[in-house]
Design a protein that fits this description.
About 60% of the residues lie in helices and about 15% in strands. It is an alpha+beta fold and about 350 residues long. The chain folds into 2 domains: about 160 residues, no CATH class; about 100 residues, no CATH class.
Amino acid sequence: MNSANDTTPTVEAVLLFKGAEVVEQMLYSEFEGVLDHVSCLPDYADERVKGCYVNVQPDLTISGIIFFCIDFDEHGYADRSWSLPLRRLMGIAGQGPDLGAGPIQLVCRTRCPQPEMREEMWDPSIQPGMNHFQILKHAIEQNDLNINQQLAAGQHTSMGCIDVAVSHAQSQNQPPLVESEESKNRRDKLAEIIKSQRFRIEALTNECKDKVDSLERARRHDQIQYNEHKRMFSQKFEQLKVRYLKREQQLNNAVALIARLLDIDDAEVVKEHLEDLRAVGNIADLSTGEGNAEQMELIQTKAENYLLTQQLVQLKRVCNTMNKKMRELEENDVPTVIAIESKRA
């Protein structure tokens, strides 16, 4: 089956998408009013909208589609700099899938005859449940634009043009090409299948590429976050390491001081270092927690007990000396002792 005859009258329509739904349909003349700011579309304020320029035949089949993007400002007016030549692009478009009337004329991002205009195009999806071709076909078949009435006036003119073309060909007496009808139909059908599959392959390849690009962007984002977390953890680790080494050094000094104090037998020396011992306890409180603090307090208590014990021993020595003198006095003659003591005084 060949593509639609170029002499067949068509209606130009513009359909706008939101997601997988057609939410706006208008004739091309109405779309020109939007481009000229005669009217606005407030529902699309400050948005980039995906649209389709569609050529529709009298039997409500689609003969051509251009998938384009258009920006609207905050008031819903179309971007004044938007200037895609839709009709000219349709005239040089390549072939797309068959939507019921032969292969359509198709222009999209991956099939744009003008590479400099690709940024203003978008690629349709052909995934189940998100097939933009089927969505467009269903929307056109609803005939909300009254395609038949739009074509009624142009149908007669179109048929007259066809008759003139046939008469001109007959007047030239050109011999028709002889070809088997069955062979021709088979060849055309095979060509359509090949083109349809080729487009499907290109569309799927483009979708896969978009998914790969999306995953790559997500991977780069995750890598950046990972590197940032790694840097933060490394910095925190170094800070904790420095604090640990500092406190470890303080504890080593404290342990060395305690060991030195416990080896001293002189009570006066222990007393002199008791303040240092209390300072060691404070270090333990700040750096090692309750367990070591209790141990340091116990060591302080032992040191203080040692001092008290030494003092008690000295007092016992004094008492023993006094007792000894008392016994000596009792054994000797008291007057004599008194006289001696008086002389001394």
